[in-house]
Specification:
This protein is an alpha/beta fold and 433 residues long. The protein is built from 15 helices and seven strands.
């Protein structure tokens, strides 16, 4: 990607931030009559669509028995599992052992671990494991190969043989029967890609991991509902299954973004390839355990989320997508990226001018929808680690936790608008819980 493209991202970020500033400051400068009633109307509109999305989950379990059935070995395709691993000495041995214990025909399963320039004991551990597991395929890249996780996956694609690619992180944990149930879901839904619901394995470690578990449950509720309403869903990096032919037609993994999964999700949407969301079985992973790791991770997610809209915005609003998809993308873009900036500027101006916030009702509506999705997602029957004692206090705590996005999004947008950006991939440390 050219430097000119980076400047274009920077300009778009600046224009987006300026637009949010304009929307948030205008009502404070001019005393618009009936503006409060306008915010009421917008809030009702937001609530109606959000509740409709959440409600689509009520029918999720009707046909769950059909998706839960295993299919015979002769109907299973050749599958390649790819894991990009850099400095994963804490978890890589556990991962490999579990992958070779999965229930799947051995002649149809290829497992590739990409040692992406590790400087810890990961190469030594993999060397030992390759002697223990003859079918383990290790691909090595130098530390300066470039492209981050996307580069590692693209490099590994040339070695793959299967019809389908399953991308896992090094801390991933799957149930033994996940693969056969996954392909039963694929065939019944004719999906081009499937995202397994993400579940936190270290849910009880501390306050942050518990909140992240609730956040993942909320995300899955919205993802399933959006797919049901508008045909829009997203990959989440870990636990994503993709048809190899579809992946190659979409241009493989983008090495010029910090979130390859979000970027690929929009390219799949533009190519009319649907992403299914499978609630159970989940892919289990570690949540980060401290504030600094959380904010580093969320800044990367926020930046990648904005990058994809800046990169593909014009195409998304062309004839390549349906009207309901354009609406859904606009709805969640505004709530996820514009509202945090508008609300924070509105709050700052309110304090400075000794006025009540103007957009508080819209923000409250968005938080209420998130709370409903957290409660419902955390209460749903599910496999994997479950939350306990989800009471009103924990609900309020989870909403307080989600408010960190109202800090992260404005901060990341300002950085993207002002500072020249190099693509840097910062890995999440896995401890092996």
């Amino acid at each position: 990607m050219s430097n000119g493209f980076y400047k274009n991202r920077r300009l778009k970020s600046l224009l987006f931030f300026a637009a949010c500033l304009f929307v948030s400051t205008l009502p404070h400068i001019f005393d618009f009559n009936y503006f409060f009633y306008f915010t009421i109307a917008i809030s009702i509109f937001i609530a109606c669509y959000g509740l409709n999305v959440i409600s689509k989950n009520f029918n999720r379990e009707i046909n769950i028995a059909d998706y839960d059935k295993k299919i015979t070995d002769d109907k299973l395709p050749i599958l390649d599992i790819l894991v990009a691993a850099r400095d994963e000495e804490n978890v890589i041995e556990r991962l490999v052992e579990r992958l070779f214990n999965l229930e799947y025909p051995t002649n149809k399963l290829n497992i590739y671990i990409i040692d992406d320039g590790s400087v810890d004991k990961t190469p030594l551990i993999l060397e030992r494991l390759s002697r223990e597991f003859n079918k383990l395929k290790i691909i090595r890249r130098s530390s300066n190969a470039g492209g981050g996780k996307s580069g590692a996956l693209n490099y590994a694609l040339k070695f793959t043989q299967g019809e389908w690619i399953l991308i896992l992180d090094a801390d991933a944990q799957l149930k033994k029967d996940t693969l056969s149930r996954l392909f039963n879901f694929v065939y019944k839904g004719s999906w081009s890609a499937v995202q397994l619901r993400k579940s936190v394995i270290n849910v009880s470690k501390n306050f942050l991991t518990t909140c992240q578990s609730m956040e993942m449950a909320m995300d899955a509720i919205f993802q399933y509902g959006r797919l049901s309403v508008a045909g829009v869903s997203e990959l989440r990096g870990n636990g994503q299954l993709i048809n190899k032919e579809v992946l190659l037609k979409c241009g493989s993994f983008n090495e010029d973004t910090v979130t390859d999964d979000l970027d690929l999700s929009l390219r799949l949407l533009l190519s009319k390839a649907e992403i299914g969301i499978l609630w159970d079985p989940p892919v289990m992973e570690e949540a980060v355990e401290n504030i600094s790791a959380l904010f580093a991770q969320r800044q990367r997610w926020a930046e990648g989320g904005l990058q994809r809209f800046f990169d593909y915005g014009e195409q998304l609003f062309s004839n390549k997508t349906e009207f309901i998809q354009k609406f859904d993308l606009s709805y969640f873009f505004i709530l996820q990226y514009a509202l945090p900036i508008i609300s924070m500027v509105d709050l700052i101006l309110s304090i400075a001018l000794f006025e009540p916030p103007i957009y508080w009702l819209i923000s409250t509506t968005a938080f209420t929808l998130s709370g409903i999705a957290v409660w419902y997602g955390s209460s749903c029957k599910s496999e994997g680690p479950c939350l306990q004692n989800l009471n009103l206090v924990m609900m309020l705590v989870s909403l307080l936790y989600l408010s960190h996005w109202f800090v992260v999004i404005p901060w990341v947008t300002i950085k993207m608008s002002i500072f020249p950006k190099k693509i840097l991939w910062k890995k999440t440390l896995h401890t092996g819980v």
